[in-house]
Write a structure and sequence with these properties.
two-stranded antiparallel ribbon; 8 helices; Aminoglycoside 3'-phosphotransferase, Chain: A, domain 2; alpha+beta; 13% strand
């Protein structure tokens, strides 16, 4: 019998590692996500898992990304908050957006957050946060957990990634994760945006972050009310309310 090892973290009941693969509960969105991952493989983007179909239990099968992960650790490992991590994540996101730019999903594609694709949008990862990253020998291997991939603007995917890595979340949240250098956040945000290649001002970008984060809080509540147990667990842990706290705190973010 093949041995399974449960992977820590997440609100969806967790994934398991089986050899060099990861098995996760599938959903109506899985075919669309696998089509996206196959596109990335076809265009040579090698810093995302490979979609390997379904197993005999109906679980999705993905290739395993090796390396260190945040998991359930609090505070987070020190590398999460280094400048080099900011640069590498920004470069990963820029390269991913380039790779995904030519992907047109099927007309009947279902995404977990029920957004609909139209020309001008990309399929973003939508959760390229520290808890979904794998690092090996000080190098970002890639991001896992693509369940929330779906149609967004480039700026919205950029905004939520900055939110997790600068970080721009509520002070009480990031302090528990080990980040307290709040006065350094404007510099770190500028470094992230410059590394990605986004030339707008911080004053222009912060409202985009606020809109994106508020939409996430509203989406969590909507999905929980619709019966999705993963989102219901997020509500139980106060994820939606801390996101709103972050939006309110960002109203005073220095626009320099």
């Amino acid at each position: 019998m093949i041995e399974e090892h449960r992977l820590s973290g997440g609100y969806d009941g967790g994934a398991v590692r089986v050899g060099d693969t990861v098995r996760r509960v599938s959903g109506p969105w899985t075919p669309a996500v696998h089509a996206l991952l196959r596109h990335l493989e076809e265009v040579g983007f090698d810093r995302a898992p490979r979609a390997l179909g379904l197993d005999d239990q109906g679980r999705e099968v993905l290739s395993f990304l090796p390396g260190a992960v945040v998991g359930a650790a609090r505070p987070w490992p020190g590398w999460v908050h280094g400048d080099d991590a900011l640069r590498q994540v920004a470069h990963w996101l820029r390269d991913f957006h380039t790779a995904v730019a030519g992907f047109v999903p099927a007309a009947d594609a279902i995404w977990r957050e029920r957004a609909e694709w139209r020309p001008g949008l990309i399929i973003g990862h939508n959760d390229a946060a520290p808890y979904n990253a794998a690092w090996l020998d000080d190098r970002l291997v890639g991001f896992f957990d693509w369940d929330f991939a779906g149609p967004v603007t480039v700026e919205w995917d950029l905004a939520f990634t900055a939110f997790g890595w600068v970080p721009l979340h509520a002070r009480q949240v990031v302090a528990a994760e080990g980040f307290t250098a709040f006065a350094d956040r404007p510099r770190r945000l500028r470094l992230f945006l410059d590394s990605y290649g986004w030339g707008g001002t911080i004053g222009d970008f912060i409202p985009i972050v606020q809109q994106r984060v508020l939409a996430s809080a509203e989406g969590i509540r909507r999905a929980a009310a619709g019966g999705d147990p993963t989102f219901a667990r997020m509500i139980e842990h106060g994820v939606d309310t801390t996101l709103e706290t972050a939006v309110n705190e960002l109203a005073d973010f220095p626009a320099v």
